[in-house]
Amino acid sequence: MTVVTATKRSAQGAPRADGGRRPPDHGAWFLVLPALIPILVLSVGPLLYGILLAFTDAQSGRTEPTQWIGGLNFRDLLHDTLFWESFRIGLVWAVGVTVPQFLLALGLALLLNQELKLRWLARALAIIPWAMPEVVVGVMWRLVYNPDAGVLNETLRGLGLGDGRDWLSGLATALPAVIVVGVWAGMPQTTVALLAGLQNTPRELHEAAAMDGAGAWRRFRTVTWPTLRPAALAITALNFIWNFNSFALVYVLTSGGPGGRTRLPMLFAYEEAFRYGQFGYAAAMGCVMVAVVSVLLALFLVRRLKGGDDT
Amino acid sequence: MRTSTGSRVGQYLALLAYLVFLAFPFLWLVSTAFKSPRELGSPHPTWIPEDPTLDNFRQAFDEQPLLRAAGNSLLAALGAALIAVLIATPLAYVMARHRSRLAKAATGWVVVSQAFPLVLVIIPLFLVLKNLRLINSLAGLVLVYVVWALPFALWMLVGYVRAVPAELEEAAAVDGAGRVRTLVSVIAPLLAPGIVATALFAFITAWNEFFFALVLLKTPEKQTLPVVLTHFIGAEGVADLGPLAAAAFLATLPSLVVFAIIQRRITSGMLAGAVKS
Question: In Å, how far is B91's CA from the nearest CA of chain A?
Answer without folding.
Answer: 5
